[in-house]
Design a protein that fits this description.
By secondary structure, this protein is of the alpha+beta class. About 55% of the residues lie in helices and about 20% in strands. The chain contains 5 helices and 6 strands. The strands form 2 sheets. It has a 3-stranded antiparallel sheet with strand order 1-2-3. The protein has a 3-stranded antiparallel sheet with strand order 4-5-6. The longest helix has about 45 residues, at about 55-95.
């Protein structure tokens, strides 16, 4: 259901896809640190096999190599945890700072964490609305909504000819596309009616 004059977000599924996409690198680093920790002893033994050491030197080498590997593991864990925390906070702020509002005659976008930006696109200037769904998006119940337009007429705002709402809940994307297509059709009919009226007024009479 489309709610007019109400600020909306991309939806819960959209938020999940956003945060998972941002956290992949940090989670991969965490997994690498975990695997190294699990194979700690095997790594130490494998490293020492490269050298022909006597028992005394071997024991000292084991302690030294083990210390370096433990330090590397702790560093990887610390970096991955900091990345997970930082990326999570940034994504949450980005999600809640990106809003869109379906107004009576235009679509308004607001975004930006520190510097807030606003774009208003009249329905009459919208040219095409596409819903794109990759296999991953279909599995996660999201879509990519692309709106092509001729820009806008608001002074002091960014002039965007393409608006992308992604990732957005698939049902919300479908409802928005249907709503915008109806509005565009109405605007076209009104524009044609006004053009016909103007033509009739300007037509010379005998």
């Amino acid at each position: 259901m489309i709610a007019l004059q109400s600020e909306q977000h991309l939806g819960n599924r959209g938020f999940v896809v956003m945060i998972l996409g941002r956290l992949l690198a940090a989670l991969a680093l965490f997994v690498v640190a975990f695997l190294i920790a699990m194979a700690h002893d095997a790594i130490v033994i494998g490293a020492l096999r490269l050298f022909n050491l006597d028992p005394v030197e071997q024991q000292a080498a084991i302690e030294s190599v083990s210390e370096y590997i433990s330090f590397a593991i702790d560093s990887l864990f610390a970096v991955s945890v900091l990345l997970i925390f930082g990326v999570s906070v940034f994504t949450i702020l980005e999600y809640y700072c990106f809003t869109f509002t379906l107004q009576e005659f235009s679509l308004r976008l607001r975004r930006g964490i520190i510097y807030r930006r606003e774009v208003t696109i009249p329905y009459r200037q919208m040219q095409d609305i596409n819903v794109q769904r990759t296999l991953l998006y279909r599995l996660l119940g999201t879509s990519r909504l692309v709106i092509d337009s001729a820009g806008h007429e608001e002074p002091g705002e960014e002039n965007e000819t393409e608006v992308i709402l992604s990732p957005i809940d698939w049902q919300k994307a479908a409802d928005i596309r249907e709503f915008l297509q109806r509005r565009i059709a109405v605007q076209i009919v009104k524009t044609e009616a006004m053009a016909d009226k103007d033509a009739a007024v300007s037509k010379p009479t005998n």
